Amino acid sequence: MDKRTKIIYRVATGLFTLLMLMGSGMYFFNHEMVAEMFTKLGYPTYLIYPLAVAKLLGLTAIWTNKSEMLKEWAYAGFVFTFILAISAHINVGDGEFIPATFALTMVLISYIYDRKIYRSHENVA
Predict the structure, then answer these.
(1) In the chain, how many domains are there?
(2) For the segment 41-57, what is each residue's pLDDT rounded down to a tens digit?
């Protein structure tokens, strides 16, 4: 595995992590604004706190590398979340789908490069 692969992985995962931390922070500390947005998008507001916690747990699974299965589930959960977010924003026509599209792009790049790193470790063993 080359240095470039690790750099791409870390940059994409880092940007994605920043987005998720900012989003989770908003969910916890600016609940009223987030609740208004969820209502406009047609999502129930009781999902706000569990989704914030799930985002933090997903980041933990990705960064700690303790369980390959949990990491796969975390990536899958993020992909589904962003696809739903993009779809919801397009459906209501608020033009706010770009941040979710950027997050989806970063999580996909992170996943692809994580797999390259993981496979290179399998081939060495």
Answers:
(1) 1
(2) 999 999 999 999 999 99
